[in-house]
Every structure is written in structure tokens, then in C-alpha cells.
Design goal:
Elements: H1 6-11, E1 19-22, E2 26-30, E3 38-44, H2 59-76, E4 83-86, H3 90-93, E5 102-106
Antiparallel strand pairs: 1-2, 2-3, 3-5, 4-5
Bound molecules: adenosine monophosphate and zinc ion.
């Protein structure tokens, strides 16, 4: 567990969250400040600080993240219309929690370029 890491505390059950899905490798919960009608955070249980800290040992984990994202989009009924999976890295990338996570956003038309 990362010291004083918000997402490690949610994973440990020390801070409540609206858990949507959980398995051995990751947890999915609702974003507290949703940016779309559907906004979930897909969070590996392993404390990895940023995308830059990934190693080849994490390749299967990151593939699993995208498999779960797709299945959740199907469950939510937003797969066919379209959705977005986002990872923000470091300050200028918009990262604010230093435990790697992937936003699943859907339920509205996404714009490009992103803000
Ligand atoms: P990022 O800015 O990419 O690091 O994303 C961090 C996300 O975590 C933001 O979208 C926040 O709204 C969300 N967030 C922060 N605190 C909580 C919390 N306690 N429960 C759920 N989501 C949170
Ligand atoms: Zn953590």
C-alpha cells in the first residue's frame, strides 16, 4: 500500500466508495465528481504511482483493465453508442491522485480535443 494513498485506502475498505466491480487485480468505483452520466474509475489494486512506473510485469494487468472497461461499458448499455477510457499522467496531464487509474466515461457525446 502507498503511504497516505487515497485509492489504496478505498481498496482496503478504509474509505467508502460506490464499488461497482472488484476482482483479484482491480476495483472499479464511481468517481466522486462525475464528468459524464457514467463515470467510473478502474483502479489496479497494486499501488503504481503513474503510467511512467509501469513495468513489463504489469502488461497483463493493463490488458485486464481494458477488458473490464469493455465489459462494464456493455453492462452499462453504452458500448454501442461509444465511451471513453482515459489515463491522466502527471500534473499537465491532469493527474490528481497518485495511484494509477483509468476513467471510464460515457452516456454523452465526448468532444475532441479534450480539455
Ligand atoms: P485524476 O485527476 O485523473 O488523477 O483522477 C482522479 C479522480 O479521482 C477525479 O476524477 C476525482 O473526482 C476522483 N476522486 C477523488 N477522490 C475520490 C473519492 N474519494 N472517491 C471517488 N473518486 C474520487
Ligand atoms: Zn495507492
Amino acid at each position: 500500500m502507498g503511504a497516505d494513498c487515497l485509492f489504496c485506502k478505498i481498496i482496503a475498505g478504509e474509505i467508502p466508495a460506490q464499488i461497482r466491480y472488484e476482482d483479484a487485480q482491480l476495483v472499479v468505483f464511481a468517481d466522486i465528481n462525475p464528468q459524464a452520466p457514467h463515470h467510473f474509475l478502474i483502479v489496479p489494486k497494486k499501488h503504481i504511482r503513474t503510467t511512467l512506473d509501469l513495468t513489463p510485469a504489469d502488461n497483463e494487468l493493463i490488458g485486464h483493465v481494458y477488458q473490464v472497461a469493455g465489459k462494464l461499458a456493455v453492462d452499462l448499455g453504452i458500448a454501442d453508442e461509444g465511451f471513453r477510457v482515459v489515463n491522466n499522467c502527471n500534473e499537465a496531464g491532469g493527474q490528481s491522485v497518485w495511484h494509477i487509474h483509468f476513467h471510464l466515461l460515457g452516456g454523452r457525446n465526448m468532444t475532441w480535443p479534450p480539455g
